[in-house]
Amino acid sequence: MALSSTFTLQVQSGHVFPIALEANPTTGYQWALSNPVDERFLVFQSTEFVPPAQAARIGQGGHQRFAFRAINRGVTTLSFKYCRPWDQSDCASFVFYIVTIV
Known about the structure:
Blueprint: E1 3-11, E2 16-23, E3 30-33, E4 42-50, E5 62-70, E6 74-83, E7 93-101
Parallel strand pairs: 1-7
Antiparallel strand pairs: 2-5, 3-6, 4-5, 6-7
Keywords: Protease inhibitor, Thiol protease inhibitor
GO molecular function: cysteine-type endopeptidase inhibitor activity
Organism: Brevibacillus parabrevis
């Protein structure tokens, strides 16, 4: 059974904000948006894997960081899934964010 979490964020219109999710690409899993971004409120900027600050070891995890720009005031959602790209039917986790833009 997949794990699911929900969080809330408040961000300022015009600002870029990050979301960092624990990840370990050596497992074959990666985070991806599970629904399109509502472009009335947010613009996707980038995603990258960030290894831990200490010396990396083989198989060590880190964080996958997403960046979004808030463009209009309002409330929207972001949803992410942690899946293997070749097997979208067996996701390990889902994370949801309710984003309030002020």
